[in-house]
Each structure stands twice: as C-alpha cells, then as structure tokens.
Amino acid sequence: MTDRIREFLRNRHDEGPILVVDIDVVRDNYNAFAKALPDTRVFYAVKANPAPEILELLTRLGSCFDTASIGEIEMVLAAGATADRISFGNTIKKERDIARAYERGVRLFAVDCEAEVEKIARAAPGSKVFCRILCDGEGAEWPLSRKFGCVPEMAPRVLEHAHRLGLVAHGVSFHVGSQQRNPLMWNRALASTAAIFREMAERGIQLQMVNLGGGFPTKYLKDVPAVQAYGRAIFDALKTHFGNRIPETIIEPGRGMVGNAGILEAEVVLVSNKSDDPKDIRWVYLDVGKFHGLAETMDEAIRYPIRTPRDGDDLIPCVLAGPTCDSADVMYEKEPYMLPFSLEIGDKVLFEGTGAYTTTYSSRDFNGMSGLRQIVI
Ligand SMILES: *Cc1c(COP(=O)(O)O)cnc(C)c1O
C-alpha cells in the first residue's frame, strides 16, 4: 500500500469496487528489471494490465511489448510505441490476424509447431520467429503447463521449417510458470535452449535470441526473492550453458511489472452462518469475486493479502465468496481465510498485489454487475 493509494482511497466519494494502480510503482519495477538484467530487453506482457497509462509510461521508459492479439497490438501502438517494439507472442493466432499484425509493421512472432510456421510464412513473409518450448512449471503458483510450446527435441525441426520457408529462425522462448518463486528454474530451460542452439548451428542456422519469458513474482502472503536474485540466477545459467557466447536475451514480465502496483478496494455485503451449529464456518460475501477480477483465486492458487479496518482484532476462519449467483464464485474455502471476528457488513476490505491479471479477467455484465473499474494514479 503506497501513500498515494491510501490518500486516494481516503478521499474517494463514489461507490463500488475499484482497482487503484500507483504508476510510480510500475516505474520502479521497470527500473528494477532494467538494473537486474542490464543486457536484456524488457517486453512487458500486456495481458497483465493493458491500462493506457501503463502502456504510455512503459513506452516512454523504452520498454518493448509482448502481445497476444490484434487488440493488444493496437493498444500498444495507440500508446505511442512503434511496431518494431512489439512481439506477437501468442503461439495460437489466426492467419488473418498475423496478416493484420504484419500490415501494422510487426515482424516478430512466436511459434510452437510447423502449422503455425506455415501461417506466418504466408501472412508475414520474411519475419523473425522464435520457437516456444515446454517447461514443466514446477515451483510456480500459477503454472502455464502444457498448453504452449513443443518438446525441446522438436524445436529444431520447427525452426528449420521456418528457415526453409524464408522466415528468420530467430530464437527460442520458454516460460517457467507465472509467480515462479524459484530463480533457479531458468537453469533447466536454458540447458535445453542451448542444446537447440547447438543443434541448429550444426544444421547451418545461427539462432540469435533467447526469450526468457515471464514468471517474476509479486509478493502476496508468502515472501518472494528480489528481482536481483532472478537477474543473478539467470546470468549464471546463461554463462553455464552459453559460455562466452551469450545470445541476445529478452524478458516478458507481466505480474512482476504491475502486480504490486495495485490495490483492490471491495465492500463486505454479507456476513452469515448456514446453521445454528457454532462449529459451522462463517461466510463472508464481498462485492467482488472470481468474476470481478479475482479469477486467480481459482483452485485457491493465488492467496492475496487482505486488509480490513479491524485488523488487530481476534481472527476467525471464514469462507470468502463473491456476489454473483454462480456457486463457483467462492475465493477461499478449502483453506479458509482468517478474518477479524468483528468484521461487519459495509466494511471496506483491501486486496493487495492486485495490479496484474484482475481487470482483464473481470466479466462485464454478469448478474448486471459492472466489470472491475480501474483508476491509475
Ligand atoms: C503471460 C505471459 C507472460 C507474463 O507472465 P508473468 O508470469 O505474468 O510474468 C510472458 N510471456 C508470455 C508468452 C505470456 O503468455
């Protein structure tokens, strides 16, 4: 919680849940990444929070952008960044959208199979492609599992196919899983990456770039290592596997760039019990839930720190649920959340670390409730 956010919330007169983002924190995060990985270019993962103020700030600071759709590409261009600072990093793209991105000047694309390479060769001739490899996501609290990437053994075939079709086989990417709390996880992925570089060199193709992905964490309830620890671990792994010939590198932080910049203010709508049995658990219902920005509580993966005006009072385990008429709209139940016994209807509660993956995950009109509003200060 920054002083600016505290001040903003104190003077707030309108009602309804709101996410307040302190842009100064985003600036500090960008500078920390640039300092921790001085030879690495930053491609902000736009999906984490595409607020125009954030994209404009990062454009001014010199950031590049990882995008997943034409919509995100247009938001980045509208923020003033040129197309040469944009990567179309989604491995799943319609050929029409590849053509549209190419028309707008984008020349860097992710692939993870030969079919996607063929689309790009047709719709974005001569562009650079990088091949995403699978990574097991161990140690990540929000793993990205098996949806994106091919096994490392397949990557040379995919990249060679690109080369034959007139594309530039540019490099390799991976993502170690979001909210990755172990900086050593880049080491294994870089071992596979270096093997692909060697294999390609034997085939006469020099790869240039390693995309180290995202995964840099935000502090929620548990402590996380500082960004410098990630910088050191990554640099050590690059030296181990590439020796004196370290390739061009990029990172794609999303959560780590904006997560700690946001505070979500919500309101207690109801506090109740479901029977007269005193052992029965208390339910606390808020005006936000899984469909209003807190989607990452799915499987109770991300546990946000919650502040209430009654912190310091005795605590009681509570099931924490959202306001909609969907029974999946429950945030914490398997592991109930300890909240003050004195918490009352109408109290304001604050979710910390909600700058990433909240507004973009909020539904629009479910039960006639508006999507999560955001203000950047
Ligand atoms: C989501 C995503 C990111 C950002 O991941 P974080 O864990 O939020 O840093 C980076 N790269 C790609 C390709 C992604 O899909």
Our estimate of the beta-strand percent is: 15-25%
Written as H for each helix and E for each strand, in order along the chain, the element string is: HEHEHEHEHEHEEHEEHEHEHEEEEEEE
What would you call the shape?
Answer: elongated
The assigned structural class equals: alpha/beta
Total number of distinct structural domains: 2
Q: What gap, in angstroms, lies between the N and C termini?
A: 13 Å
Instruction: Output the number of helix runs.
Output: 10
> Considering the protein shown, what is the CATH homologous superfamily of the largest domain?
Alanine racemase
Helical coverage, percent range: 25-40%
Explain this structure.
The structure is a single chain. This protein is of the alpha/beta class and 377 residues long. It has two domains: 50-253, Alanine racemase (TIM Barrel); 260-376, Lyase, Ornithine Decarboxylase, Chain A, domain 1. It is built from ten helices and 18 strands. It has helices spanning 3-10, 23-36, 52-61, 70-78, 95-103, 114-123, 155-164, 185-202, 227-242, 255-258, and strands spanning 18-21, 40-45, 64-67, 86-88, 108-111, 128-132, 140-142, 168-173, 178-180, 209-211, 248-251, 262-273, 282-286, 306-307, 315-321, 330-340, 348-352, 373-376. β10 (209-211), α9 and β11 (248-251) form a beta-alpha-beta unit. It starts with a helix and ends with a strand. The site of pyridoxal-5'-phosphate has 16 residues, from α10.
